Structure prediction request, 397 residues.
Amino acid sequence: MTEIFTGNFTQQEPIPEEGIAAAIDVMRSGRLHRYNVAEGEAGEVALLEKEFADQLGVSYCLAVASGGYAMGAALRAMGVGPGARVLTNAFTLAPVPGAIASVGAVPVFVGVTDQLVIDLDDLEAKADQADVLMLSHMRGHLCDMEALMAICDANGIRVIEDCAHTMGAAWKGKPSGLWGAMGCFSTQTYKHVNSGEGGFLVSSDPELMARATILSGSYMLYDRHLAAPAPEVFEAIKYHTPNVSGRMDHLRAAILRPQLKRLDQQREAWNARYQVLEQGLADTPGLSLTHRPESETFVGSSIQILLLDWEERKVHDVVARCLARGVELKWFGGAEPVAFTSRYDSWRYAPSAPMPSSDRVLASILDMRIPLTFSLEDCEMIARIIRAEVSAVFQGG
Ligand SMILES: *Cc1c(COP(=O)(O)O)cnc(C)c1O
Prediction:
């Protein structure tokens, strides 16, 4: 009998009951705007920022409307403006080059290795082309962060980290988001915590954070924050920084607070599923997986399968055959993007010279999301299905 998987790849877990109760309280109060607080009340957003800052071990945190907004605000806070060039990953998702384009700047794409991290040799070769790097930890893969920072420091490049897939991850124990000058997180439904839309910006640089806070639309109410720089820091910049509204509201903050508390537990749950898939797919002829370095604490919320040097027709075949058995693989490398774009040659507003070794890797990537609504047994079955279909096509089927 042919096994068919019947789970849903886009079904997330429910919001914790504690968050639902807190959200109802916010709605009953009518005070949804972050600065609409009663006498003596901190408000859900300020509490959320404080809790996330403490959890990460960083001085400042600002909650915002989306991960994309956080990246745009980070660029603006650093003074990146029209015509500036910003280094970024050739393999990432559309909001990353989009954030660069949103401030009128121009993405300069840096290649990807077969471990799906930024190619540090290519970064070094392009280091004289920009003074900011928007580093995307795409699909949760962290590069050697010490080596990356050494290259950036030596070349006067400031780093913004896109941690949309690395909330809860670390390199050598230091959390993702704290390596660069600013870290950006997303709390959108398909990331590690779910408020529908939302994001965070973190930093230990008071001036950058004061600018980002004014940018986000704090008016002159920044003293109501609990994880913001001291009021003096705002004095120098408050009349020179435009308001580009992108605040978070109490309703989203209320449902996020209990989710942040269980982030470590969620990481373990994701990694248990990742491990089952990794083991089930190991040594499948024609298929390679990335090797996760010991220094990397990752969150296995998705898995990437590489079909290196396969004919396009055969990759399509694998995707179709897996789908027929209920397993949704996204071919990130397809020349015609489906649903979303993830490779540099899709962003034609930012032309780039071709990068053959990156193209080889990009063309090979199949991606699978791992919702926590899947059980370990589900993951075992999914691995069996992928293994069988990849093997059948590889052997000429
Ligand atoms: C989702 C995502 C973002 C942006 O997050 P939004 O909250 O959707 O704006 C940024 N980078 C990557 C890699 C993402 O997947």
